[in-house]
Amino acid sequence: MLDSCAGQVKPLANSANDTRSPALKKHNFASLLLEHGFTPKTYDFDSTVLGFQHDIFNALIHNDPVFSEKSFIREQPDCPDALLRCELITQSDDLSAAVQHFYARWFEELRYSNSVLELLNLEMHEDAASIHVLTISKVNAMTFVFNIQRGA
Predict the structure, then answer these.
(1) DSSP 8-state code for residue 21
(2) Other CB atoms closer than 10 Å to residue 72's CB: what's the count?
(3) Going along 7-127, which residue ranges are E strands?
(4) What does the alpha-carbon distance between residue 50 and residue 28 come to, in Å, rounded to a whole number?
(5) pLDDT by residue (tens digit) across 43-53?
(6) What is the rounded CA–CA span in Å between residue 33 and residue 36?
(7) How does pLDDT run across 64-74, given as a tens digit for each residue?
(8) What value does the CA radius of gyration of the chain take, rounded to a whole number of Å?
(9) Nearest in space to 152 (alpha carbons), one of 24, 87, 66
(10) Does an H or E element contain 104, and which?
(11) What are phi and psi for residue 91, nearest 5 degrees?
(12) pLDDT bracket for residue 5 (50, 70, 90)
């Protein structure tokens, strides 16, 4: 899993198990937000965070067949690389199916339909997966980290 704080993404596992994608190492989400004109002074991240919390809860946690209601969402206002951190706990042992379910929900219900830039970086481990997301439309922007853990 990833610990996204202070504008950095750091693996929780030891560095020998670090399998982050080259795209994740290459892109700094906080810098990309700035490049597209999204700063705390020019954009209301709080409203966007609140809206996504509601949408994520409804799409991935509440009455979801894959993720447990023990899953939770945490705001990280001082972490521009992951303004929302979502800890998703599976109801089964099938981590790959949970990741596929996440992607299906993301593309069907959560993403901006008119995105200018969208990056999803997946890091898989034996018992967990992390998906680091940046999404920018002409008028909105958001960053996330979704940590998916086996719950069964």
Answers:
(1) -
(2) 13
(3) 8-11, 72-75, 84-89, 115-124
(4) 23
(5) 999 999 999 99
(6) 5
(7) 999 999 999 99
(8) 15
(9) 66
(10) helix 95-105
(11) -95, 0
(12) low
| Residue burial 4-28, b: 16+ Cβ < 10 Å; e: rest | beeeebebeeeeeeeebeeebeebb
Distance CA 145, CA 152 (A): 22
Q: Enter the tokens of residue 116.
A: 């200018």
Closest CA to 84 of 119, 123, 45, 43: 45
Start-to-end CA distance of the chain, whole Å, equals: 17
Residue type, 55: D
In DSSP terms, which residues pair with 147 in a beta bridge?
87, 130
pTM of the entire predicted model? 0.83
Q: Give the pLDDT band of residue 12 (cuts 50, 70, 90).
A: very low
Residues 141, 143, 144: CA angle, nearest 5 degrees:
145
**pLDDT on residue 10:** 38
